[in-house]
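To whoever picks this up:

The nightly regression suite flagged Spore gernimation protein GerA as changed. Nothing in the input moved, so I suspect the structure step. Input below, exactly as stored in the fixture:
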Amino acid sequence: MNWFRKESKKEEHSLFKIIQHFKKSGDFIDFHNPQSPASFWISYFGSLIDAEIIHRDILPFLNKLPTKKLEDIKAGLPIENVMITSDLETIQKMMLKGSLLIRLKEDDNKGLLVKAEMNKAREVTIPEEEFSVVGPKESFVESLTTNLNLVRKRLPIPQLEIKEFTVGTLSHTRVAVLYISGIANEENINTALQRVGDLQYHQILDSSYISQMISDNDNSPFPQLIDTERPDRVAGVLAEGSIVILVDGSPHALIGPTTLVKFFSALEDYFINWQLASVLRVIRLFAVSFSILVTPVYVAVLNYHYELIPKDLMATLVSSRSLIPLPPFLEALILELTIELLREAGARLPTKVGQTIGIVGGIVIGTASVEAGLTSNVLLIIVALAALASFTTPVYKMGNAIRLIRFPFLMLAELWGLIGIGIAFIFLMGHILRLTSFGRPYLEPIYPPRLEDLKDAFIRLPFKMQEKRPIELQSPDTIMFSKRKADENKDIDE
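Regenerated output under the current build:
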């Protein structure tokens, strides 16, 4: 009885048993060619293997091979990634990643692994979320190898280092951490490497999984890592000293450490003159503040502080609300929820249908609600402007956070008016002040105050005035370029 158990355990861990288990899958192929001089067995997953490599580079060679040694097959195959091993774990892992196994006998515990994986990836296209009129038109795709190529060709330097991890007990997803040695802070590098290396989860399907798991505060609605699909933005932040994380299967990169102000900075700001870029940044910041506060202020003023409304405007508001049966809070809440429903429906439907739903639905529902006397035309205009202002945020995930925090402001405005809005603002600032990104302050350069970093925060000053890297990145090499040397190079006309 003991002997039988030992034999069963031995067979369970044999290569033959692994092959038999793989055969349960309909896409697994295991065939024997007895007419070949080498009389080999070949096994692979048809869904993972490039059939052209098999029929062009492998089978013609094997059918002519007279020897019966794996070493001779390895030496003669016109393929680089070939290895002979008897390690069962390696064989299983490599076959599931797109390698085929060659055995001389069916019951052999040693085989030749030939890498012949099929690489099907989307071609590099223009950015969809971070589109810019001026500048490069390339975006990341779902292939990690392609994404690394897009970064490498923009930073062809040996100091660009890439550390790869395999994350996910089921998905075995490749995750790459990128940084420039000598520019990135060692503490930031170690923090990123440790957090990615310590991840324990069954599957990683997108970089958003990584972002949620390695953020300093996963209970905050605010993203603590910038999500971008642009390789030119990645190259720019790497040169400043940031850390970048790329995930195989995801067309987005994660950037950290970061600050709140950087979420309102578009890459196009660096492709236009600094005066226009500064004006656009101020407009974005104003639009975000307007989006959060305008509806709560409307509710607070009508409920508690109507004496603040000018007489001429009061007449307009009274006439617009004369037939409205709902209080301002419910009126505003219904419109805000309607806007969110239209956004969600437009995002989930196919592109052309989604655009139609957003435009037609907004016009029809808005017009019908005003004519039915459920909402006032003044509030409809305010809510529409607030929704429009929230779209000015360059980073999509920050826009989602702004949409969410409007509702607590609206509820507190209903309870205590402008005092409630002030309380909500205090809680919001207290939360943001405690936030960090890779241990760095999230509200920098406001707190802690750093005047040097204000050159590229709320406004963007000319490049010649930005000779130092951001203080919040704590780069060991703080100088990006020498202003003195630049001034010494006189123009030919001078």
